[in-house]
Amino acid sequence: xxxxxxxxxxxxxxxxxxxxxxxxxxxxxxxxxxxxxxxxxxxxxxxxxxxxxxxxxxxxxxxxxxxxxxxxxxxxxxxxxxxxxxxxxxxxxxxxxxxxxxxxxxxxxxxxxxxxxxxxxxxxxxxxxxxxxxxxxxxxxxxxxxxxxxxxxxxxxxxxxxxxxxxxxxxxxxxxxxxxxxxxxxxxxxxxxxxxxxxxxxxxxxxxxxxxxxxxxxxxxxxxxxxxxxxxxxxxxxxxxxxxxxxxxxxxxxxxxxxxxxxxxxxxxxxxxxxxxxxxxxxxxxxxxxx
Length: 291
Hints:
Largest sheet: 6 strands, mixed
CATH topology of the domain at 95-282: Protocatechuate 3,4-Dioxygenase, subunit A
Number of helices: 7
CATH class of the domain at 95-282: Mainly Beta
Strand content: 15-25%
């Protein structure tokens, strides 16, 4: 758990506002080109589902007002990216990647920031001189589906620190701490020095946390690395990698864990840290599995 001074500088409102700002900064007018017939269909069915819940459970005005107040507070705190990415995105990702070949994907989550510093194939992520945590060497290769190396593939990586906090979403952390874009070598290989991230609770002091508490759920995510892997002529891969033995692999609040995405760290011989090896196979653009 982070020291109290760090916890005091981390809140749902701070991270929620940052996530909302990054979302609109990173995307140009999201949804502007959406098909009107699809919007009509989806919105009608979504509202129809809400109406059915109200009828089936005889929702009262008191309960309706409580839900209405909760929705308002989610917006006031800027927590919609947090709520939607935790409770909804995993189903969107599942549908989007159902017939895509190659390495399994996972959710993006609310903490991605584009344009992380460019690094060579054998690099250490930007970190504080006194960065806490067990050192980790993350290495592997990027290939196509036939196993041919993808020279110059890019591996964007971002992660929480040893206290479960993300740079740019918690105060007092350098902007690009534990974030980078690694360019693989001519054999598609990479070696990334970092630290093992901590499991963490999603912010619980805001509206999303109140919902979790009211429902009797837990707010924990298992430790993980975020990756966005890309290469010319291939579909980009957005995924997360987890660590075997983590307490919350089976009950991740974001439902993002897949068996194929679990790492098996082995002890490093030199510094008391750990090493993990994971290879990525990217499908060529428009390559899909048979339904």
